[in-house]
Structure formats: C-alpha cells, structure tokens
Specification:
This protein is α/β, with parallel strands linked by helices and 330 residues long. It is built from 15 helices and 12 strands. The longest helix has 17 residues, at 31-47. It binds iron/sulfur cluster (SF4).
C-alpha cells in the first residue's frame, strides 16, 4: 500500500508499534508496513486468530503483529494449547504442520505454501524405512524440520534446543538422527553416542565457515560468538556458545556481552537487538529464502481469505503426532 494512502488514524494507531522497532526499521520504511499491520491487527480480532512467528521473521512481523514468538519448540508448545480459532504460522511449512498435528481442531494457515526448508526437503519417509533396514534396532530421532510423513516414520522428534537431551534419554548405544548431518555430528561430539547421520543441511547455516569466524574475531576484538548447531562442527568449535535461537537469545539477555555476533539467520540479530540497545550486534548476513517468503502482505491475505489451510493425511497424522508428543513429554 503506498505511503500516500496512509490515514491519520492508521498513523496514530500504529505509532506505539513503530516505537518498538525504530532501532531496526528506518522511518522512511515504516509507511510501507503500517497499513498492513493495522489491517492484520483488526483481522485477528475479527477472526479470533493468533500469529505465531519464528525468530527468523523480519522485525515488522516479529515485533508488530505476532502474538507469540520463539524457536520451533516454543511455537509447537504454544500451538498445542492455543484457544484461538485460527492459527497463522509466520514461519515455514513444517512448523505449520506441527501446529496442526498438535491442535488438529484448529484452522492452521501458512501465508505462502512455498515456504519450505532445505532440511525438510532432503529426506522422505521411504529413506527413513531404508535406514531402519540398514541399522536394525537403532531408534530414529527426527529433527522437527521434517515433513509429517517423515515424523510418522520416526520414533521421536527433537529440536536444536533439546537434541542432546533426547538422544541421551533414549539410552541407546546407536541412534539414527535425521536429516541434519551437522546437528547430528554436533550431538555425537557432545554425547559420545554413536550417531548415524543423514546428509541433509540447512542452506543458511552451512554457508558459515570457521575462517569467517576467525576473521570476525580479528576485526572485532573481544566479540562473543554464538552459533546455531545447524552450523558445521568446525564453526561450532570456533564459537563461545552453541545453542538454539531461544538459547542464543537467552544467553544475550543473561550475559549481556558488549559486542556479539549471532551465527544464524540475519533477522534473528535484528529481533534480539531491539531489546538490547546497549549491545553492539555484528551482523554477517545469511538470509533464509523460505522464511522470507512470509510477509505482512501475505499474512494479511491469509487472514482475509483463510488460505492456505494446512491439512495432514489422517493415516500419517497419528504417527507424526506420537513422535512430536514423545518429544514434548521428555
Ligand atoms: S534457516 Fe535453514 S533450517 Fe531454518 S527454515 Fe531456513 S533452510 Fe530450513
């Protein structure tokens, strides 16, 4: 919507929201967002809807229209107990599927059906069955970044925040962990459990290199480096701390390092920086093209048209739900 069509009322209603994000959104950009934000807030009330937004969403979504923000584990927990009639998932498709699995009576919408994930696309349920044949008796842990069909073919899910705990809780000497090879190798190093990995990678995190981290340390003396465990193990080895997006955010809030780099998707730093004006965030930028398919405009359209609704084959849903619920129980 062009800035010229902004009314005084919309400007006044959205002004408090702009205050939240003024550190990361220049004033000249705000008029491009204000009308959609105003419309989304109205539509949420009319539809009895909530927006769950992942930490990699852009600040105008994350800080201005989301009801709940977090990593995929936090969003899954919120989805399970949500009472709204409509859940809009501002994230990628597997997150919307997980929300539908955990709260099947709700209408779950994904604003763009093409918002996928390189990890989820790297493996099928047939691949999981082949792994089971090859490694009989080894339990299968599926990263939550997988389709419902892959979850259904697995024993239990995990996220980057709980992968180590889940693997240790299984008590098995050998575990199949799919599909993220780097997360699997990072967990193997931490636990000593023999991990059979799959060669899936996150197209965002695999681009970071150990040389890049060393270069950051020499250019920004004293910098604290936090890395996501989807990064290659040699990158994690160079970091001061490795953890999920929620764990990184928590680390920044607790330790308040004067200068920090979050080795993960770009928008994460913008979103955390909003709460910590005293901290210098260094931002090497790797964008997730899938997360960036979600925009204010398509969230608004989803609420107007109630599209695209996520459905799951009932034959798959029961098994996939069991794998997610086992994770949440642990
Ligand atoms: S950042 Fe990586 S793991 Fe997350 S949705 Fe994008 S491709 Fe998938």
């Amino acid at each position: 919507m062009p800035a010229a069509l902004l009314t005084e009322e919309v400007i006044a209603r959205t002004a408090p929201l702009y205050e939240r994000v003024r550190r990361v959104i220049p004033p000249v950009e705000w008029p491009a967002f204000a009308n959609d934000i105003d419309a989304i807030l109205r539509l949420k009330r009319e539809r009895n809807a909530i927006v769950l937004a992942h930490n990699y969403q852009t600040p105008e979504i994350f800080h201005c229209v989301a009801d709940v923000v977090g990593d995929s584990l936090a969003l899954a927990r919120e989805a399970m107990t949500a009472e709204a009639d409509v859940i809009v998932l501002a994230g990628v498709h597997f997150m919307a599927e997980t929300a539908k699995l955990l709260n099947p009576g709700k209408r779950v919408l994904i604003p763009d059906l093409e918002a996928g994930c390189s990890l989820a696309a790297s493996i099928t349920a047939a691949d999981v069955r082949l792994l089971r044949e090859r490694y009989p008796g080894a339990p299968v842990v599926a990263y939550v970044n997988t389709s419902a069909a892959v979850k259904a073919a697995s024993d239990i899910c995990c996220t980057s925040g709980n992968a180590r705990r889940i693997v240790e809780a299984l008590g098995a000497p050998r575990v199949i962990m799919i599909p993220d090879e780097y997360l699997a190798r990072n967990v193997a190093r931490e636990t000593g459990v023999e991990i059979i990995a799959w060669a899936g990678h996150c197209e965002v995190h695999e681009r970071f290199t150990a040389a890049e981290i060393r270069e950051l340390r020499s250019r920004y003396p004293g910098i604290t480096v936090l890395a996501h465990p989807e990064c290659p193990p040699e990158v994690v080895a160079e970091a001061d701390f490795a953890g999920s997006t929620a764990a990184m955010s928590d680390y920044v809030g607790r330790k308040k390092p004067p200068r920090v780099v979050l080795v993960t998707e770009c928008s994460m730093s913008d979103n955390v920086a909003v709460h910590h004006p005293e901290i210098e965030f260094v931002r090497p930028c790797n964008l997730c093209p899938h997360m960036k398919r979600i925009t204010l405009a398509n969230i608004r359209r989803a609420l107007e048209t109630l599209r695209h609704e996520v459905t799951i084959d009932p034959a798959v849903a029961a098994g996939a739900r069991r794998a997610v619920e086992r994770m949440l129980e642990l």
